[in-house]
Amino acid sequence: MDDKAEKRQTLRQNLLEQLTRNELEGDEIRKIVASSSAIADFFDDYLVNEIFAAIEPDTLDWNAGYFDRQRKLAQSNFAEKRISHLIDVREHLIRNGIAGFAKAPVTKRTEGTNTMNMQGYLPSTNLAKMVEHGVTSMVRSALINELENNRLMDNEINKAVFWTETRVADLFVAYEENSLAGKMNNDPAQWDADYYDLQTSYLNSNFAKVRLEHLITVRNSLRLRGVKGFEHIIIKPKAQLQSQHVRPPSRQHSDSSSSQPGFLRVALMAGGALAVLAALVISLL
Question: What's the predicted TM-score (pTM) here?
Fold first, then answer.
């Protein structure tokens, strides 16, 4: 299997996996599917025979068991029609609060659990907006954006994490290692900008609290060592008015995505699972 074939298979597996999670909105997955239609040999022809059952248009037949059966069929017959149908079924089950599909409620922890001094802390406008919006993938992306803001010190980011965690019940997932989320290296001598970027990509795939805390530690270590792109940026008072509507300074990134379709560019900047899918699509176009 060549590199392109492996990436196609990885993208397929990721799409099928996202259908079983509540991390992405249906429209986000639809846009990824639409973008993927431009990839050569990505989708199979829609098959109906004694092995591959037809999709059922009647919503009365849409339940968790039906979803699982169609998802298994899609593993062997990865047709765009089947994937789009699975998205529709998934949304139907979410709307009806079916177990395993209902979105986790946003809850607040009791005052007794507070262990961090949050006096004077105010979340960034973007972070507060994403938490209010209630889409976990967008909240995670907003937290990663906090990491990219070189105006913030590590204690401010820790407060942002604590503030967010008390409001978003399903913010973090269990730590795991897989093909998209490798190990963490606890040797500071081996930490550099490339390692930081690698761990950020791992966090996008496996948003575990220990991974985010590790990134905060790595970021601060690189800053203290004066690594280019991690320097603390202090905005002088005179410059504040001028920079009110300007994106917070961050490390310089490649503009190689500037020629990509609009949605994919936005998805890359969003971070999280959406960025992982977008990056895979772009690598195959």
Answer: 0.51
* DSSP-based three-state secondary structure for 58: coil
Closest CA to 278 of 3, 21, 39, 2: 39
Question: Minimal CA–CA distance to 116: which of 61, 172, 168, 154?
Answer: 154
The ranges assigned to domains in the chain are: 3-102+258-284, 124-242
Residue 121 near residue 247 (C-beta atoms within 8 A): no
Q: Tell the burial category of 238 from Cβ atoms under 10 Å away from its Cβ (0-12, 13-18, 19+).
A: exposed
Number of other residues whose CB lies within 10 A of the CB of residue 31: 21
Distances (CA, A) of 64 to 131, 132, 284, 285: 29, 29, 32, 34
The tens-digit pLDDT sequence of the chain (285 residues) is: 677 888 899 899 989 988 988 778 888 899 999 999 999 999 999 999 999 999 999 999 999 999 999 999 999 999 999 999 999 999 999 888 887 786 554 444 444 344 577 777 888 888 988 888 888 988 999 999 898 888 888 888 999 999 999 999 899 999 999 888 999 998 888 999 999 989 998 998 899 999 999 999 999 889 888 888 888 887 655 544 444 444 444 444 444 333 345 778 777 666 667 878 888 898 888
Please report, for residues 99, 143, 154, 221, the alpha-carbon distance to residue 232 in angstroms, rounded to integers and kept in the order given: 46, 18, 10, 12
Structure tokens at 42: 């990505």
Q: How far is CA 231 from the centre of its chain?
A: 26
Among 70, 76, 276, which Cα is nearest to 178's?
Answer: 276
User: Locate tokens 């905005």: which residue?
Assistant: 235
